[in-house]
Automatic annotation (TrEMBL):
Keywords: ATP-binding, Nucleotide-binding, Transport. The lineage of its organism: Bacteria, Bacillati, Actinomycetota, Actinomycetes, Streptosporangiales. This is ATP-binding cassette domain-containing protein. Belongs to the ABC transporter superfamily. It comes from the Bacteria.
Length: 298
């Protein structure tokens, strides 16, 4: 994506968005509701025309690709299948349209665990089964690039775990995988890299490890029955201390090992010493604080 822009009436849904989705890793595409994720994915797939900028797939616009599902597989809306059509027939017309062998249909049904129900009408499918069918359709052309829009929506914990493993293995095979979510926790163990957007604009384009490091500070929380003595001892050693919840002291400016050594040598008992590490969720909340349209005040 280079300088991608899309306006709907007065609203700029996508505003000067530039990022790259490289092969061999899972790129998480996150942002609050209404941030512009689905619009961006539609622009990549040529389902909408940008007002500015370009979205290229392997260097070319999606609409100009021959047999596009062999270049880029996508699942945007898993429920967009005719309810009276059998899953296998749905995949079969896609295979025919792309000039793929009929055998691919059985292969992808097997891959997503739908072999035994492939001849049932999709109208009777559960939400999770439809998600699996959407993924089968994305995989049909064995493409080197894949897009999944909120793939875990509506899945049970088994399904969520399955998707996580599938996405990681697709990236390990060298494919470029772009997966959107409005929940950071869904991407915590899945994405290697994150593109965060808010109100259509790029907020961060970063690997998960550096995002966590930037959000974590050097605070250490000490749990002690001798709070006052601990605060005196640590501030004398140059730390900035603050009384936390009962029995806790928050310490900044000294590493945990040094704090433990000081308290021990001063004979101050303590029962806990925890380095503060931000969760991905906290890091994300920090980043998107000003980009959320609807967040309650409390
Ligand atoms: N077809 C459309 N017509 C008018 N406005 C639209 C259209 N599609 C999207 N928008 C607006 O563009 C903005 C971005 O929407 P988009 O669906 O891309 O966000 P999103 O990040 O995918 O959100 P969510 O996580 O809620 O799915 C929103 O303000 C939305 O109301």
């Amino acid at each position: 994506m280079r300088g991608l822009r899309k306006r709907y009436g007065a609203a700029l849904a996508v505003d000067d968005l530039t990022f790259t989705v490289p092969p061999g890793r899972v790129t998480g595409f996150v942002g609050p509701n209404g941030a512009g994720k689905s619009t961006t994915l539609r622009l990549i797939l040529g389902l909408d025309r940008p007002d500015g900028g370009t979205a290229l797939v392997g260097g070319r616009p999606y609409r100009s690709l021959r047999r596009p599902i062999t270049h880029l597989g996508a699942m945007l809306d898993a429920s967009a299948v005719h309810p009276s059509r059998k899953a296998s027939d749905h995949l079969l017309w896609m295979a025919h349209a792309a000039g793929l062998k009929k055998a691919r249909v059985a292969e992808v049904l097997e891959q997503v665990g739908l072999s035994s129900v492939g001849r049932r009408a999709v109208g009777g499918y559960s939400l999770g089964m439809r998600q699996r069918l959407g993924i089968a359709a994305a995989l049909l052309g064995d493409p080197p690039m894949l897009i999944f829009d909120e793939p875990v929506n509506g899945l049970d914990p088994d399904g969520v775990r399955w998707i996580r493993i599938l996405l990681r293995s697709l990236a390990a095979e060298g494919r470029a995988v772009l997966v959107s979510s409005h929940l950071m926790s869904e991407l915590e163990d899945t994405a290697d890299h994150l593109v965060v957007i808010g109100r259509g604009r790029l907020i961060a384009d970063t690997d998960v490890r550096s995002l966590l490091a930037a959000a974590s500070d050097d605070r250490v929380v000490v749990r002690t029955t001798h709070r006052q003595e601990a605060m005196t001892s640590l501030s004398r050693a140059g730390a900035t201390v603050a009384a936390g919840e009962s029995g806790q002291v928050t310490v900044a400016g000294l590493p945990a090992e040094r704090i433990a050594a000081l308290l021990t040598s001063d004979g101050i008992p303590f029962t806990g010493l925890n380095e503060h590490r931000a969760s991905l969720e906290e890091a994300y909340m920090d980043l998107t604080r000003d980009a959320v349209d609807y967040r309650e005040r409390t």
